[in-house]
Amino acid sequence: MTVEAKITPAEAWNRLREGNVRFVGGTSAHPNQDANRRASLVQDQHPWAVIFGCSDSRLAAEIIFDVGLGDVFVVRTAGHVIDDAVLGTLEYSISMLNVPLILVLGHDSCGAVTASVESFNSGEMPNGFVRDLVERILPSVITAHRDGTTDVNGNVVEHVKQTTERMVDSSKIIADAVDEGRTAVIGVTYRLAEGRAELVSGFGNVE
């Protein structure tokens, strides 16, 4: 195991936060993106964070957190919707790669959340497998509306919070890692205009 694989959840979040500050300020360092880094990763990998985010093309995880090859293990679905394959992938990152941080990444103006809010308001569901996405997001929309939050971006924040909670509730492997202090699960929202990532929820210590 490399030194990078042994960092704490707080140190992992600090690295991502510092990278995002550089990105917002236009001073990205583009680390670990050269030929030497590529060659060093041929035999194995030791990422120090998982980023589980929305598939939106404006949400390129390695760019907005200014990291490079081998730094982060990335999982993406529309609306960062969790299914069995996602949970299996996340559990792999914890049990096999010993990653100390899972970051759930949502963003404002999310199309999947927007579709879910529209379905909630109209009572009509979309066709095809988009319906499955909406059905998985609707519990977050219902919770947000119950608490008086009706705008899409407010619903995104609630969905990020619900996603982190569901992840820990659904996976004993992840929950045990959090309880033992080996891993933290945090929720972050991304502002498209500013490029800023903001912490909104979490399980485990990242301070």
TrEMBL record:
This protein's UniProt keywords: Lyase, Metal-binding, Zinc
Source species, domain of life: Bacteria
Co-factor binding details: Binds 1 zinc ion per subunit.
Coiled-coil regions listed in the entry: none
GO biological process terms on file: carbon utilization
Record's keyword annotation contains Lyase: yes
Keyword Lyase: yes
UniProt GO molecular function: carbonate dehydratase activity; zinc ion binding
Alphabetized InterPro entries for the sequence: Carbonic_anhydrase, Carbonic_anhydrase_CS, Carbonic_anhydrase_sf
Catalytic activity: hydrogencarbonate + H(+) = CO2 + H2O
Function as written in the Swiss-Prot or TrEMBL entry: Catalyzes the reversible hydration of carbon dioxide to form bicarbonate.
Family: Belongs to the beta-class carbonic anhydrase family.
PANTHER family: CARBONIC ANHYDRASE, CARBONIC ANHYDRASE 2
Name of the protein: carbonic anhydrase
Taxonomic source organism: Neomicrococcus aestuarii
Upper classification of the organism: Bacteria, Bacillati, Actinomycetota, Actinomycetes, Micrococcales
